[in-house]
């Protein structure tokens, strides 16, 4: 009996050197499983017929939908600025996983600038799918970084991989099956996960960026997106809600950039520096 008990314990513990999942990691994987179930269980949602009819249709210097195209520039600027701060921080101050996930986030921001500009040049269903590919890459880096900051490095990497694979899959489902539900579940579920992670304190040596600030900027951006025409009328045709949404959504990267700037400003390793809550 003692031998059997010992054998069962070894099987439960897994291979030697492998760590068992922690309670937060179990919760994380249950959350991803719930998102998959919701994506299949919820009713099919089609793209609204007038989705591509944005409020600002102006052309400038031959550029169609000029403001909706040019307002994507802040994504590229934030991505480049964040990449510069990441280089300045150096390897001693930020762990390898945090560096990799931060780099993925900033590459995703620059991809978002390119993909969203392409879509708004001539809005159509296929272009929207491409737009979401860039957004998905940025979201994979951001969520992975948040998970690595608040749960574990391995969970952060796994989360980034899951989102990086799920985002293009849900975007293609929306294009080929005319079903927006999986994409909506991925977005909403990701935000709920970010909110839950914000309740946890940063781990030792974490980047410690302000997750609540990221959520607040993103929520404001979604509100502007929904108020595309009203904002355009309120500003007397100067700026539409969708163009403003691009600028505000880019500012959601500011807490990450700021945390990297703080890390670059100290000479001691990040574990000895104060972190942002």
Describe this structure in words.
By secondary structure, this protein is mainly α. Helices cover 70% and strands 0% of the residues. The chain has helices at residues 2-13, 23-41, 66-70, 73-89, 96-121, 125-150, 153-176, 181-198, 211-226, 228-234, 241-251, 254-265. The termini are far apart. Residues 1-17 and 267-277 have low confidence and may be disordered.
Structural class: mainly alpha
- Please tally the helical runs, counting DSSP H or I stretches of 4 or more residues: 12
Termini gap: 50 Å
Main sheet: strands, sense, barrel:
none
Number of strands: 0
Relative strand content? under 5%
Secondary-structure element series: HHHHHHHHHHHH
* Shape annotation: globular
What is the share of helical residues?
55-70%
Q: Name the average pLDDT.
A: 88
What Rg do the Cα atoms give? Answer: 21 Å
Low-confidence stretches: 1-17, 267-277
């Amino acid at each position: 009996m003692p031998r059997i008990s010992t054998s069962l314990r070894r099987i439960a513990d897994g291979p030697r050197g492998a760590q068992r999942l922690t309670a937060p990691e179990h919760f994380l994987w249950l959350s991803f499983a719930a998102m998959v179930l919701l994506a299949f269980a919820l009713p099919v949602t089609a793209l609204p017929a007038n989705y591509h009819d944005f409020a600002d249709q102006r052309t400038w210097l031959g550029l169609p939908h000029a403001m909706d195209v040019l307002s994507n520039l802040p994504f590229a600027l934030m991505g480049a600025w964040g990449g510069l701060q990441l280089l300045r921080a150096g390897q001693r101050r930020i762990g390898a996983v945090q560096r990799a996930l931060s780099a993925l986030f900033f590459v995703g921001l620059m991809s978002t600038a390119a993909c969203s500009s392409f879509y708004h040049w001539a809005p159509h269903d296929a272009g929207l799918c491409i737009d979401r590919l860039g957004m998905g890459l940025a979201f994979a880096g951001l969520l992975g970084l948040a998970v690595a900051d608040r749960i574990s490095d391995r969970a952060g990497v796994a989360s980034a991989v899951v989102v990086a694979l799920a985002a293009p899959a849900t975007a293609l489902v929306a294009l080929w099956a005319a079903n927006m539900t999986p994409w909506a579940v991925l977005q909403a579920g990701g935000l709920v996960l970010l909110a839950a992670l914000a309740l946890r304190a940063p781990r030792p040596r974490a980047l410690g960026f302000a997750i609540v600030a990221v959520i607040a900027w993103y929520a404001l951006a979604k509100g502007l997106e929904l108020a595309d025409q009203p904002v355009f009328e309120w500003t007397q045709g100067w700026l539409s809600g969708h163009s403003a949404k691009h600028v505000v959504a880019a500012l959601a990267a500011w807490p990450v950039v700021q945390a990297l700037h703080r890390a670059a400003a100290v000479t001691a390793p990040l574990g000895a520096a104060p972190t942002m809550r």
